[in-house]
Amino acid sequence: MKKLIFFLFALAVLILPVAAFAGGNPDPTNENPISLAMFVDLTALAAGIAAITLFIKSTFNTSGLITDIVSWVLGPILGMIGFYFNLGMFAEVVWYGALLYGLLASFYANKGYDILSVIRGKKDVEYVKIE
User: Fold this and answer.
1) For residue 80, what are the contacts with CB-CB under 8 A and spacing of at least 6?
2) pLDDT tens per residue across span 29-72
3) N or C: which end of the chain has fewer CB within 10 A?
4) Residue 76 contacts by C-beta under 8 Å, 6 or more apart in sequence?
5) On the CB side of 40, how many CA atoms lie within 13 Å of its CA?
6) What are the residue ranges of helices labelled H in 33-94?
7) Predicted local distance difference test score (pLDDT) of residue 45
8) Rounded to whole angstroms, how far apart are CA atoms 113 and 37?
């Protein structure tokens, strides 16, 4: 039973980010992900979170866990901003739904792919650095 639950969770972790990023650019004329267009859907919000996190990372020279925490906190903050101003997909959502969408977008934008290594207890996850 434990293997079945792990398999289903692993399948969800691998498929959900693919489904989130499979959505197209909601506004093809707008190439900047940091705009009001990022509140249109979950894919655009995840792209906006990734762009803002990269901006913060390069501006303040953060790395590792600090960058992860910034990304994880940024999603719920943007979700609540979208809820407060009734932007895009947050127009008809209750406040806890906005928090959940923000957390999901943070999960998609920030290392959702390596959760299996954390579950298995593998502490030394190797990352490919692109410079």
Assistant:
1) 95, 98, 99, 102
2) 555 556 677 788 888 888 888 888 888 888 888 877 888 888 88
3) C
4) 99, 102, 103, 106
5) 17
6) 42-60, 65-84
7) 87
8) 25
Q: What percent of the chain has pLDDT over 90?
A: 11
For tokens 């957390």, what's the residue?
103
In whole angstroms, what is the distance from residue 51 CA to residue 126 CA? Answer: 23
pTM more than 0.85: no
* Calpha distance 5→49 (Å, rounded): 30
Provide the token pair at 76: 């719920």
Q: Quick check: helix, strand or coil at residue 77?
A: helix
